[in-house]
Amino acid sequence: MKRVLWGLQFFGVVLLSFPLSILPCRVGEFLGLLLHYLWKSRRAIAVDNLKRSISLNALSITGTPEEIIRDSFKNLGLSFIEIIKVYYGRGERMLDKIAIRGMENLDGAKARGKGILFITGHCGNWELLAIASSVKVTPLSVVARPLNNPYLNRFLDRARSRYGNRVIYKKGALRGIVSTLRSGGSVGILMDQAVLPDEGYVIEFLGRGAWTTKMPALIARRTDAPVLPVFIRRKGHGHEITIHPEVSLSPNNSLEIALKEDTKTFSDIIANYIRENPSEWLWLHRRWKRVP
Fold it and tell me: Which of 28, 92, 106, 107 has CA 20 to 30 A from 63's CA?
């Protein structure tokens, strides 16, 4: 029975999503605004998250919080249409127009011969970042959760692998990440979502303590792989990917203290990106949950 339901769900998603791949990307803005209007609970969470950070002087904005959150939803809608086009093989022109900055940072890291660990957050079109990085920068393995529906999951895997992405699933991910880096590969990790207490540390993030994954810091020390922050942002009618210089790790002799300091350093880099591009971050996520 489950297989039947999964199959119906899969065909339903394809029937709804394929027509969207043919439409202009600007339709995504309308979908984002529609989501902003209909998803009132998440809109309220997003506005509250932003207002709290502003009240704590953790960032400043041009315009009102409500305007920034509306633009954040528009970014989600645009990102959805863009990635649907890519999944259905209609994103070549979009990928061609993506500009890359900081290739010298990548070349310097590659020369180390230790693999490369990319860190980023849910900024801009992060799914497009992974695909474009494999196409225009270097083949990339990404850490992700599998979808509950195996048919949809297989569809996504095939779409990603078509562009050079390989998925390392979160369950037992550490072994796969370490193996990839030690063989000279590159791995990308999103590190701006709340984790369970045994998976990280409480780190100040945009003015408030937030549970933050320690996995990138742990992996960097275990493999000696260079850590490079990478972000994608909208620029005009296209995108720009920036590869930042390698991040220096803490010199502290205590492993636990060093891991926490590294985690804070990595998290601060993402927070700084959000300060510069507040409307391109996923404010609707409960980033600060489980912290009093």
Answer: 28
- Rounded Cα gap, residues 148 and 7, in angstroms: 12
Contact 290, 195 (CB under 8 A): no
pTM value > 0.90: yes
Q: CA-based Rg of the chain, rounded to a whole angstrom?
A: 19
Enclosing H/E stretch for 169 = strand 165-169
Angstrom distance (rounded) from CA 119 to CA 189: 5
Here the tokens at position 187 are 């791995």
pLDDT digits over 164-196, tens only? 888 898 777 889 999 999 999 999 999 999 999
Which are the contacts of 208, defined by CB distance < 8 A and separation ≥ 6? 52, 53, 56, 58, 288, 291
Residues in the chain, how many? 292
Q: Are 143 and 188 in contact (CB under 8 A)?
A: yes
Q: Are 259 and 218 in contact (CB under 8 A)?
A: yes
